[in-house]
Amino acid sequence: MSPQPRPHKQIHLAAHFPGVNNTTVWADPRSGSQIDFSSFVHLARTAERGLFDFFFLAEGLRLREHQGRIHDLDVLGRPESLTLLNALAAVTERLGLAGTVSATFNEPYELARRFASLDHLSGGRAAWNVVTTSDAFTGENFRRGGYLDRADRYTRAAEFLATARELWDSRPVDEPPRRVDHQGRHFTVRGEFGVARSPQGHPVVIQAGDSPEGREFAASAADVVFTRHGGLAAGRDFYADVKGRLPAYGRRPADLKIMPGVTFVLGDTLAEAQEQAAEIRRQQVSPQTALVALEQVWGVDLSSYDPDGPLPDIDPDPDGELARGRVRIADPQAVADRWRALSRAKGLSIRETVIETTGRQSFIGTPQSVAREMADFVRGDAADGFILVPHLTPGGLDSFVARVVPLLQERGAYRTEYTGTTLRSHLGLPDPARPVGKD
């Protein structure tokens, strides 16, 4: 008998609301409001129609600055994430609702209460993307100044999450509530939690760190990892590394989903899709945006340089900082050397170099080829699924749901209906009441 074909590994999909970044193409006439509730409703309902696991919101706590001016790609007035997700809970039925909230500028009791409330109001669809913030610039908006040394940000986040879970677990099903008495390095919490146990017990926890500390935090505590490792080789390395850390915490590979953020461009032919993708990248990286990206590496004013000319022949200033509210480049000299080598090898201008080096991994092609590549990517253990970051608000997912999702379903690589009601059930995650490593 010939061997049976290996069944398709099921793909998980999520939708990222586009916005404060250079992924969004604001100049496109189809680009809509970043603030109006109808934009969020459109994207969320499209994702739910496509049977996506969850809808994902990023959040910034301060408008970024560049050379003392508000960064052009920042948006004033975007609604606060949890407020918005509670509103979306009323106009969706199965779609998970994921909000980014900092573990640096909040307190465990208050945030545990807010996420438990969202989980109740949505019927078990809440998720928390746990992020850390180490810069004093953002902390200027908060009472205590907010500065946290980089060495402490993950220790605080780990204790924050552990304290939140103590609070959620203090309200067990069919048992009397337990008092919480947490005394740690960062937090002291005593008393009873004020919200009944929510449908999921714990909201799904998402994490996006890529440093060794971030990978360890993900292996110990996260349910989903949002990564930028979208290339096949890098994706496999990251996947194997993080999954390989799970046994030390009594966890199984299925207990953690790895989902890179990716873009996509669809065309009737490969050539058409590639042409569209090139035009989108040119729109995403304007001449001004290219110089800003260059200044973030070099740390000095480069406004006199021609974006269509060669890269600077001067070295970066290791202490230069023109941008505030962004993560600083760890080794600017190494980045500059890499960009110069690429520019020389391919004859690229400043703008062309930025376009080539700052774009996320994209799936570019016909609906058939994109469906095949996505299925192969997941089947090859480079990811468990993808968080799609469309370049248009709010209709950027429409074509993917209409043209790619049915093909994934035909391949047997994607669900044809929701089989559960909670986000944990969509993702195949364990019940938090079950001890780790146990069936």
UniProtKB/TrEMBL annotation:
Domain Luciferase-like: 28-379
SUPFAM superfamilies per record: Bacterial luciferase-like (SSF51679)
Pfam families in UniProt: Bac_luciferase
Gene Ontology terms, MF aspect: monooxygenase activity
Keywords for the protein's UniProt record, in alphabetical order: Flavoprotein, FMN, Monooxygenase, Oxidoreductase
Protein family according to the UniProt entry: Belongs to the NtaA/SnaA/DszA monooxygenase family.
NCBIfam families (alphabetical): FMN_nitrolo
The protein's name: NtaA/DmoA family FMN-dependent monooxygenase
Organism: Streptomyces lunalinharesii
